[in-house]
Amino acid sequence: MSTETLYDCAIVGGGLGGLCLSIKLAQNGFKVILFEKETYPFHKVCGEYISLESKQFLSSCGIYIDELNLPIIKKLQISAPSGYVIQANLPLGGFGISRFTLDQLLVNEATKLGVIVLQGTKVSQVKNKNLLYEIHAENLVYHSRIVAGSYGKRSNIDIQLKRKFIAKKYKDAENYIGIKYHIRIDYPIDLISLHNFKDGYCGISKVDDNRYCLCYLTNSKNLKKNNSSIQEMEKKKKKKNPFLKEIFDTAEFLYKEPLSISQIHFEEKEQVVNGIFMIGDAAGIITPLCGNGMSMAMHASKIFAGLATQFLDGKMSKEQLEIAYTKAWRKEFAKRVWFGRQFQKLFGDPKITEFVFRILKWNPGLLKVLIRLTHGKEF
Ligand SMILES: Cc1cc2nc3c(=O)[nH]c(=O)nc-3n(C[C@H](O)[C@H](O)[C@H](O)COP(=O)(O)OP(=O)(O)OC[C@H]3O[C@@H](n4cnc5c(N)ncnc54)[C@H](O)[C@@H]3O)c2cc1C
Is residue 233 classed as helix, strand or coil in its secondary structure? Predict the structure, then answer.
């Protein structure tokens, strides 16, 4: 069955990219509908450390970080599997907030501005009909003038679009999985740590509600070696890093089971596919060790909202919008994503990690350069 309203923009996926985009377009006076398959608030696999580059933009979306009494994180500690450790001040720093809290705050703002938010509604198909799009969800068809795909790392829509990164065959070592816990622990408030183990790394930093987020990335090779058991993998591998051993031995774990996601890939992606404008992880994923995928998703929504406004106001054609957005996205993010990919190669093999960390400790300026190459400026 078809619905009657013609929306200016339909947004598939209500994570940070989609929610911020909906707010920006609604602020510009457009009719926006957003589809989210889950129901807010909900937890997500994410390290929950947000680079302060997005603070000003979040204020423009109605989220005032200074009023939320959040932990401000200024120091970075990274350890090799042996426990060899280096520490540095973060030039810009970040803050900690759970996705459970932040996504809910944003959806409240979007709703206040008149965005139609359809929660628990999974989009099954998007059809580009040239002058407008059809969005199929839960046996209904919606119509819009443009569509943004902000549905994250991998979705049914990617399969429908036969995207290149979906078609590729991956080795187990290239197939990443993410695991997350919320814990209570006696740990510094202003520190984000990245503790390495063979085939992966684990971040810990404080978020709201007096919790810490403990989140790690490893590959499916590692999981398979441990009979596909997360518990076994954690016992054998991560406990080899003395910092992780202490965290796992002393923390109070607040979920019965960890949250997990699989099939994470860091392949290059296209920013516009079949006329759908990709925002956030759907446009390109930065390796989590860089700690700014969320800021990138928000920044992309700001860039796209500006350009889409010109199209919706009749100042730009669809073709011009496609070219302008692709160009702007690549200019802002392509290098960062590439450096993140190269940087991640230095992690995973304990001998290489140890060697690199010794060089970085000896030359702290180099670590600052690496941080700069993978981060952006305030936007
Ligand atoms: C292990 C790990 C740790 C990380 N740690 C950090 C960190 O500390 N700091 C940082 O900045 N970044 C981190 N990131 C990256 C960060 O999580 C992402 O970059 C960010 O969430 C991207 O936002 P998004 O809006 O693109 O997608 P998401 O936040 O993933 O949102 C996508 C939404 O789309 C919905 N959806 C999907 N398909 C459909 C459909 N068909 N119909 C309707 N809805 C749909 C999903 O339910 C989801 O809510 C980490 C990533 C991983 C894997």
Answer: helix
Q: Identify the band that residue 238 occupies on the pLDDT scale cut at 50, 70 and 90.
A: low
**What does CATH list as the number for 2-42+99-169+266-345?**
3.50.50.60
pLDDT at residue 239 is higher than 70? no
Q: Are 304 and 148 in contact (CB under 8 A)?
A: yes
State the greatest distance between any 2 C-alpha atoms of the chain, in Å, as a whole number: 65
What residues does ligand 1 touch, defined as CB less than 6 Å away?
12-18, 35-38, 45-50, 122-123, 150-152, 155-157, 178, 215, 217, 264, 280-282, 288, 291-295, 297
- Give yes or no for a contact between 318 and 275, defined as CB atoms under 8 angstroms apart: yes
Domain ranges of the chain: 2-42+99-169+266-345
What would the pLDDT profile of 12-68 be if each residue is shown by its tens digit? 999 999 999 999 999 999 999 999 999 999 999 999 999 999 999 999 999 999 999
DSSP H or E segment with residue 76: strand 72-79
Supply the pLDDT for residue 131: 83
